[in-house]
Amino acid sequence: MLLLGLCIHEQSSITIETIYRWLRLLSKIRSNTVEPEFVLRPVNVEPRSASYFCSAKFTTTGPDLVWNSKTPLQPGHYATFSMSAGWYCDVVFDTVRWPTFKEACASESAVAKRCEYPDWFDTQVRKRDGKCVITGTTTKPLATTWIVAPYFRGVVDYNVSAFPLPDDENIFLTVKNGLTMRQDIADLFFNNDIAIDVDDDFRVIYMQEPSKLCSKELLPIIPSHISLPEDTPEDLRPDLCMLRWHLKYSLLANGAADDVMTYYGKDEISAVLGELTGEDGDEMQEWDNELWQSPIGQLCLAWLLITKRMEQ
Which domain of life is it from (predicted)? Predict the structure, then answer.
């Protein structure tokens, strides 16, 4: 099962310490310990064969990654292991792909209505910030955006390690849950394409290759880290837990993927593979076969390409 896929690039390279912290953010285990309940080890992943759909074996290729290391995380495959055994333990993490705020609010009119910005919200957030909190500019058209859309107050994960939900859920409808940004950046933020990691000195995190998200004009003016005004009264400051929840949603919307078995049973997948490739894998159907173009057919094709590439 793919737990998390990350695009590591110049603007958003991350340390080993950061990836441990992000994984704990996604953990389903409530824990207040300083050290994580698991270790990361580099592994080599090999699909067993085309006939064993989504079944892979892996071997450890290096020592445990030290959880508080400031060393940059290198590209590659990593697996989680329990602290007391050598078995794979991704079950403690949330691996379901969540919709972005924009997707969820566009899917139902009732949801979209609940996420509309009240006039008072727009006015007060703009008055507090006075500029784009990311770039500092005041020249471009500015927009206000929720940090966490109010619709999500009923589904916020109460098990966010070390970041408990406030007793008063009205925080979702206050200026503490809002930011002022350039319109183009606000769109990226609300679609969970970018996030702010408050525990990494308010670093701006890109969830995809930055050049695919930002125009040539925009990308150079987005700093690696931002700073929020320190002279803002406590009851008006952007809520840091909200920013952590936004980061968590962004990771789940972009890095996580549903297990294919959520949608298709093993027997169904085996039957489709057999129909497309033959029992011995030597009777491949023509590419114009409609079954190849179906969702399950596309999954089978992707798996066949992966196993073929690994064999070579």
Answer: Eukaryota
